UniProtKB/TrEMBL annotation:
It is a multi-pass membrane protein. Residues 23-297 form the Sugar phosphate transporter domain. It comes from Rubroshorea leprosula. It is found in: Membrane. This is Sugar phosphate transporter domain-containing protein. It comes from the Eukaryota.
Length: 335
């Protein structure tokens, strides 16, 4: 009875983590769309820097109140993570500018096979045939929904390539660092958010000026636009935290696959709020295929052998500190 109870609690916690991520992610997309389209605040990189500055403030307050315990993350690991994360943000913004919407969507979809490759190579993960096929179905469905015109140019391809690999590596490292150094989601955010805020706020205004030919310091800040910026930053704390929670509990691949539910919800909400002119048989068919693939993936990956590690080659720091005890337990288990 106890194992079943633990499994039920885990299932509830997993569902709550996904719901938290979906709600905050869809919420921030809607707020940012209104901020940029209605109020003309087109400074995406600077806005992301403000998001991480707000996250830094929240983690600092929680640490001061004692809700976040002291932890350690080596500078080398922090530097790698910041490089991947910032290249991801900058690369995605540049890719969106230099590529057609269709090729941009293809680039985003390619993060799933890249994340699979990283897990296979780095963590020795093995996927069953059904798990691989379900991922392919999700890719097909989301592709049918979102890919329209597709045109490719050299500089756009390079930007997309950098964006895809840096984003996949950043998400892989979220899971890797939490396991490797026994960090909670808030702990990891507390280490990474200040550096991301500082670097993005430093390069953001220059990059945004290059992309939009507008200066963030000359923007006409009104009471309503400032309220939307504040709301965006507030929701971003939940978005950043929920991303770390989900990837920490699952993996980058699961986060990517099931995360496409957000794409479907954004499309549905767009039709609900902004009219049905984009709603056609192709989009509806794509949604049905994608949702079916997500359900299949959840079922296939949870089965024995659906997705499993071939070796346990990544001990945590905590395990290393108690090495002698761990070795003793392993010997007892083998006897």
């Amino acid at each position: 009875m106890a194992p079943a109870s633990r499994a039920d609690k885990k299932a509830v916690a997993d569902a709550a983590a996904w719901m938290f991520n979906v709600v905050t992610s869809v919420g921030i997309i809607i707020v940012n769309k209104a901020l940029m389209a209605t109020y003309g605040f087109s400074f995406a990189t600077t806005l992301t820097g403000l998001h991480f500055a707000t996250t830094t403030l929240v983690t600092a307050v929680l640490r001061w109140l004692g809700y976040i315990h002291p932890s350690h993350l080596p500078f080398k690991e922090l530097l790698k993570f910041i490089l991947f994360a910032n290249f991801s943000i900058v690369g995605m913004n540049i890719s969106l500018m230099w590529n057609s919407v269709g090729f941009y969507q293809i680039a985003k979809l390619s993060m799933i096979p890249v994340s699979c490759f990283l897990e296979v190579m780095m963590d020795k993960i093995r996927y069953s045939r059904d798990t691989k096929l379900s991922i392919a179905v999700v890719l097909l469905g989301v592709g049918v929904c979102t890919i329209t015109d597709v045109s490719v140019n050299t500089k756009g391809f390079v930007a997309a390539f950098i964006a895809v690999w840096s984003t996949s590596l950043q998400q892989y490292y979220v899971h890797h660092l939490q396991r490797r150094y026994s960090l909670s989601s808030f702990n990891l955010l507390g280490h990474t958010a200040p550096s991301q805020a500082g670097t993005l706020l430093l390069i953001g205004p220059f990059l945004d000026y290059w992309l939009t030919n507008k200066r963030v310091d000359t923007y006409n800040y009104t009471t309503v636009s400032v309220m939307f910026i504040t709301l965006s930053c507030t929701i971003a704390v939940g978005t950043n935290l929920s991303q770390f929670i989900c990837i920490g509990r699952f993996t980058a691949v699961s986060f990517q696959v099931l995360g496409h539910m957000k794409t479907i919800l954004v499309l549905i909400l767009g039709f609900f709020f902004f009219g049905k002119e984009g709603l056609n048989l192709q989009v509806v068919l794509g949604m049905i295929i994608a949702v079916a693939g997500m359900i299949w993936y959840g079922n296939a990956s949870s089965k024995p052998g659906g997705k499993e590690r071939r070796s346990h080659s990544l001990p945590t720091i905590r395990q290393q500190k108690h090495n002698s005890l761990s070795e003793s337990n392993e010997l007892e288990g083998k006897v």
